[in-house]
């Protein structure tokens, strides 16, 4: 994980900064330069709410080396109040009791440690409410 | 299509864990088979689909390397990439080259040499087909993405793990009749359900394997093909290419593969066919759930009704709509960049009536469907025996 | 060419060390500029040249990702790769798409985001353009390969380090008049000769830099362009594409870039021009020696006589055969996949007479030459003001 | 450096195994499946001689991490007696006294250590005679 890349994504990963199209109201996350719905190029910057609903999920049992010490862990697609969807880990839960439709809270968590550089990478994870 | 294009030669390298052969060797092996099969004495240009020789082999600039080792020196050579759909994309670009009048005889090939890295290296290389910053960063793997599609299909339409397993069982049955298949063993539903879980609800036997392999075909204008006539005439009558959002979570319907639907509609329209006119299909079953969603997206089954396709026997080689007679990615193997071309090889083999035990009766029109990532890109081709 | 194609829009992102912007951001920035410049309200398909988003950014499947972020959803999108000639290759494939009748309005772009890895990561990624098993394995770097070409040119033809330096001096002079250049500083011969040696006899100021950047152009049939007429008409009248051995040591003449020669001949023949009919050139000066060998391979100078081209002033923007008026890869920057498209952008700017201080007088016909690796692949395009 | 890759290249790197076209006599190194001169597909396996001439060279002063502990070091293109050219390091020499045309001996040497796997990678290097 390169430092510049990590740094420029902080606004998305720490603050859930998104863009709301000034023309059609569509919300993009992360921020974009052009609205995929109406091709308008002006957005208001907003922070997404931290509550949502689990749409679908899985339990990763065979993970990449970066996440192998966390396996098995759950991942899911969560639809936030604004209608925006994010993919994230589902944590602080019994992985055998997940169900689509569960209410979720978005929290700020450690995502993985980067062995080669020693950097700790943070971001969002979801927790059942 | 505006102009008829013919497939006049097909070739495969060996497929499997080919530790004794390099990327360049396996590509050239498949290309020499295709050239020999076609009877041509030269090619004017070549296209190579490969997903990530950079991450798998520290080697980019594949177009120049492979033209060099194929002994065709100075000809135009182009590498294209669309993740696991790179082979299908090479096929399309070879067609455009001929349609544009730039080349007369063109080689379209695909290759991936995946066992030069360990399993973790392969996992990371394959993950590069997903959105690195918003999917891979979160810890999801490729099986994990398709597992979330499967979970939603099960929740929404009542599809079962048994129905997923039936796709693997059917494709391994087909693979058992294909001497080129990497895993020609027949399996049963219990074997799938008892195999280790990779990402719930997908077991390892729901997943396509890691494979080294290459495939190549020779294309030319239909007019040129009539002069050569080594083989029954096979023409390409339609091609479709479409994209979708990169990230799975950005799609309105997680189980709908809209790039597949759009590419299918484009190809069918170009060929003047309806889906019911197609006699057999090679589709991108990277995971069992993928085959189910693809058949729905192509319109072979209504939305949500694809789950029973394999279990009902309909998609068996001897059923009414044979799917993946080659064994599919599941049993034949999935060297990602080669897969799209190998699908063409299987359809041509069937249309030539050279498929032996797994021959589909009265096969006249075949369709290939090759997909990148979790469905972010798709190529469809329609081939017909003339 | 069989069918006229016009360049109707051009766009560049910022170029430099763009730590605040991601790969997708810089690509979309350049594409939106090009679309706006063209005045079109949609594109039918897109091509992206990128050398190694896998090794630089852990991200393949760029075609789908960039179509998504450009907000063009489902259209066909294709990534092509030929190392540092990936941009030129995207240009060619976009032309074939239009010539084949498949698309009417096509975007051809290029992008490389090189500063997301450290210098060693960039060195390794760039090395993947050479033969990994028989060049990189031995410890040679890319500057090392061009240094061996330079050494041989000096031994054989008496070319001097001063003459190499003059190429850098000339291209930085041009860059000083280009507000988009990454290194717009004027330099002199002493500065080059006193800069640190990277691989004898090449100093760091003989080498192009590491750059983040993107470029895009909009193409359509000449007929379609006449309906839009936002800008003076610029048509593509020739294209050439050729390959050579992958490994530098496999070539009979180490200083002869035969892929450049062949691609140049093809493009000139297609356009019905002679090399003397060309008013200005953008060529692939990844290293100073490269510009010298390229001018010889294109036939602008006899073999071995290219050394004095820059020193004599002939290739200055106000000389008889202006080369790299943009500043070239040297001063403008070299985001590898973007370079071939940025060359087109410069020629179009000149043919539109919008190049300001560095404007070439009476520029009517321009040529771009984009090269992969140590010369293993080459794309040439010829553009004309109508 | 992957083990299978290392292992399958041993014949080229340790023994300079090459192919001599049975039709036109052209020698390919490494072995190929088809002759680039005459398109014949049959080759005799030969071992190249270990003597040659330096064609061109450079001194690598900024090396990749794999070779950084060896820099500065010379590399060159050497034409062996059979007319085949190889690229290799030029070692056991004064890097300031290299000249094109020098006679070279091909020797078996350590090329680099692979830090991550601990494997030592061997192959050919050239030494002035
Ligand atoms: Zn909008
Ligand atoms: Zn021969």
- According to CATH, what is the topology of the largest domain in chain B? Peroxisomal Thiolase, Chain A, domain 1
The count of strands of chain A amounts to: 8
Q: Low-confidence segments of chain B, ≥5 residues, pLDDT <50?
A: none
Q: How much β-strand is present in the residues of chain B?
A: 15-25%
Structural class call of chain B reads alpha/beta
Q: Mean pLDDT of chain A, as a whole number?
A: 94
- What small ligands are held by the chains? zinc ion
Query: How many H/I helices of chain B?
Result: 13
What name does the CATH topology of the largest domain in chain A carry? OB fold (Dihydrolipoamide Acetyltransferase, E2P)
Report the top-level CATH class of the largest domain in chain A: Mainly Beta
Beta fraction of the residues of chain A?
35-45%
Total domains of chain B, how many?
2
Q: How far apart, in Å, are the first and last alpha carbons of chain A?
A: 31 Å
Strand order of the largest sheet of chain A: 6-5-4-7-8
How many DSSP H or I helices of chain A? Answer: 1
